[in-house]
């Protein structure tokens, strides 16, 4: 809820502390990504002159959410998820601490603590909430309370895995799925696909990415991949969840097992580079249509040879690039799948052209 006015007030307080008492100041801002560019810029001069030590905390990726100017003056510390041993230690402290569950004299086996820690999926706050819920369901035993396996099973039922829609973890997992498909590992691809479904990802998003994978990483090595990806998206629209998810899994496995080629991806990139390099070159006159007498009078299409009327349905020697470009080669088929045959055919055509 803070704003630039609050920053100025903090600056005045920090200056007073330094000049009057010789005391330094730390300014800690939680959820720093909620500050807009102007608000973030307000920190810069005071960070630079040492008015205060600035510490910002965020659950978002600072590369995307913070100004480069502020980032360049800061050191980034990445906080990792806690493991089961660390969370178990926190739970044990909560059981002993008088400010926590200590007064209850709660008894719970270490193995059950591990179950709670694992169910928390790296989130200490969730682990403590699970333990507190378990304590509410505990049975009296002697001078204290006891949590058994049935209570823990009931508490952890319906647990969730961490998944931040549109956040870092979201994009990390779709990247892992894409790379597993590209790497021809259907098992890993299925795992990441299942992780995304479990986290609540919209299956339509996965379907769109599968279409992209089919073109980028398989292409003409197996053109069926693109058809299957599109069919899968339609199947999901018809069936919805959970039935449609099986069709998505089928596409994931097919794409992972299919022969791979990025020849089209590379070829398009090369062509786009030349478009930017050469600018707006004129279309050769023989390739232009001539629907009017004026165009025919200008010679549009006059020297064009209709390929189907030529031997082998190929007009030998006819060029199709702008006159000043020559004949660059963009598409080089891979030695895999259908592109083996495509390469043989192109080799024949290019030999004739030469």
Describe the structure concisely for a colleague.
The protein is 54% helix and 6% strand. The chain is mainly alpha-helical and 354 residues long. It starts with a helix and ends with a helix.
What would you say this structure looks like, in words?
By secondary structure, the chain is mainly alpha-helical. The chain folds into 4 domains: 4-71, 3-Layer(aba) Sandwich (Rossmann fold); 84-156, Helicase, Ruva Protein, domain 3 (Orthogonal Bundle), CATH 1.10.8; 168-257, Zinc Finger, Delta Prime, domain 3 (Up-down Bundle); 263-353, DNA polymerase III clamp loader subunits, C-terminal domain (post-AAA+ oligomerization domain-like). The protein is built from 17 helices and 5 strands. The strands form 2 sheets. It has a 3-stranded mixed sheet. Strands 1-2 form a two-stranded parallel sheet. α10 (168-182) packs antiparallel against α11 and α13 (224-239) runs antiparallel to α14 (243-257). The model has no long low-confidence stretch (mean pLDDT 89).
What distance lies between the first and last C-alpha atoms, to the nearest angstrom?
70 Å
* Share of helical residues: 40-55%
Strand order of the largest sheet: 3-5-4
Shape: flat
Q: Could you give the count of β-strands? A: 5
Would you state the CATH class of the largest domain?
Mainly Alpha
Q: Write down the secondary-structure element order.
A: HEHHEHHHEHHEEHHHHHHHHH
In percent terms, what proportion of residues is strand?
A: 5-15%
């Amino acid at each position: 809820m803070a704003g630039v006015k609050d920053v100025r007030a903090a600056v005045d307080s920090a200056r007073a502390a330094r000049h009057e008492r010789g005391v330094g100041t730390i300014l800690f801002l939680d959820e720093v990504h909620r500050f807009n560019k102007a608000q973030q810029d307000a920190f810069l001069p005071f960070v630079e002159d040492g008015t205060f030590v600035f510490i910002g905390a965020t659950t978002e990726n600072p590369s995307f959410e913070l100004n480069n100017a502020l980032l360049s003056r800061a050191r980034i510390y990445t906080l990792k998820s806690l493991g089961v041993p660390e969370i178990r230690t926190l739970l044990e402290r909560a059981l002993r601490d008088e400010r926590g569950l200590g007064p209850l004299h709660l008894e719970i086996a270490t193995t059950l603590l591990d179950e709670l820690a694992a169910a928390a999926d790296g989130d200490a706050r969730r682990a403590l909430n699970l333990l507190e819920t378990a304590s509410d369901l505990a049975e009296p035993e002697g001078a204290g309370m006891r949590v058994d396996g049935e209570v823990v099973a009931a508490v952890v039922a319906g647990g969730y895995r961490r998944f931040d829609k549109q956040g870092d973890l979201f994009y990390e997992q779709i990247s892992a799925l894409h790379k597993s498909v590209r790497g021809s590992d259907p098992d890993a691809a299925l795992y990441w696909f299942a992780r995304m479904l479990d986290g609540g990802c919209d299956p339509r998003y996965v379907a769109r990415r599968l279409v992209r994978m089919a073109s980028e990483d398989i292409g003409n090595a197996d053109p069926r991949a693109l058809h299957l990806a599109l069919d899968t998206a339609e199947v999901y629209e018809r069936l919805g969840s959970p039935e449609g998810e099986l069709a998505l899994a089928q596409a994931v496995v097919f794409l992972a097992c299919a022969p791979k080629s990025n020849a089209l991806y590379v070829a398009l990139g090369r062509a786009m580079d030349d478009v930017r390099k050469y600018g707006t070159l004129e279309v050769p006159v023989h390739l232009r249509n001539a629907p009017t007498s004026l165009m025919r009078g200008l010679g549009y299409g006059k020297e064009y040879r209709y390929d189907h009327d030529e031997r082998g349905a190929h007009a030998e020697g006819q060029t199709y690039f702008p006159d000043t470009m020559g004949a660059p080669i963009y598409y080089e088929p891979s030695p895999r799948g259908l592109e083996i045959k495509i390469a043989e055919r192109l080799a024949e055509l290019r030999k004739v052209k030469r």
